[in-house]
């Protein structure tokens, strides 16, 4: 395992001090708001990294990716300009996918430092200091609509490990993604617990405590309003990937937190694509059909487009939703000889229609691609062809629906590749969200460095 320099670790409570215009974390023993010794946790030096100023930009900021899977979130974060200090994943097949792509000659980013490891066994001090972003998709089976819905009773719930990573690395920000089932009414109290645990990562669970006991203590600290330790301002939102240019209707919960010393406003990026714009393009201007050169007698009726609601009469201001036809445009029929020239574009027999599993319409965003412990579902991963027949999406088509570039390969079997793709974060959505986070981090770092430089200049002798 690759080892990195240890920057040093401290214990106890922390508070923000201003020294020369750059904030430092300093040990705090606040007599007005003492920290219970039983709640003290290991913390790390969270001083901003040294910035090399240029006229237009700051050097690349650092990130650590947890639960990387096939790399959708990690790839989007790389596209946003972050440099991965570590990409952590336990599953062997997923690590093969990550390493296969990261080691390519035409890989446009720095090679990812991939580690096949259970995050519960990771010592984050080995990764060095100066991590600006912690990201990941904690395993979603405990909360998945298609899973067993055990939630906090499920040993696969990795949100406690996500909180530990934030506590030990104390990054400027974090972003975690999970299934929409996390917002179910039955999980509402536990979701509050997840958010508060990420808000106050140093307030650790006491030995013998149930999670409900820990939640009560976190609520008291939150309402007290005078906590001086490491804490984050946390927001969350349910995002539909189709609203950001992904050719798939995929709803996921994003939880984003910024360290409390970052005094900059942030909100989730505005949507860029809309359902209304797609319908307008199909039913009013007909530009959609012209773009794809679909003859009038081959265009489906709008009754057949059951996924799309009525369009507005005025021209929409956003771009249109992208469809399955958009995504697979340029790919040959997987049953043709030409398909052999494309990696991962092989026909998979056995698709069939049954109640609740009818496939994705060609001229609408795909249904949410899925991957369950019971195998690949029969409907969500199928395409409904114009003649009424169905077939499975190929690996390459599925990768396009998740906005992986064609150069990104999945070297495992069809079943394993579909599992990895179905669990992935759409690359485009990951890039949009992390780019916005990165912009705020850079502004913070640049502002701190400029302030420090100006104050130092002011005390220099003439």
| Rg on CA atoms, Å | 24 Å
Second-tier CATH architecture of the largest domain: 3-Layer(aba) Sandwich
Name the average pLDDT: 82
- In total, the number of domains comes to 2
Strand content: 15-25%
CATH topology (level 3) name of the largest domain: Rossmann fold
Termini separation? 51 Å
Please, how many helices?
Answer: 11
Major β-sheet annotation: 7 strands, mixed
- Flag low-confidence runs: 1-57, 144-151, 304-308, 458-462
Helix and strand content put the structural class at alpha/beta
**CATH H level, superfamily name of the largest domain:** Vaccinia Virus protein VP39
What is the total tally of β strands? 16
Q: List the strand order in the largest sheet.
A: 7-6-5-8-9-11-10
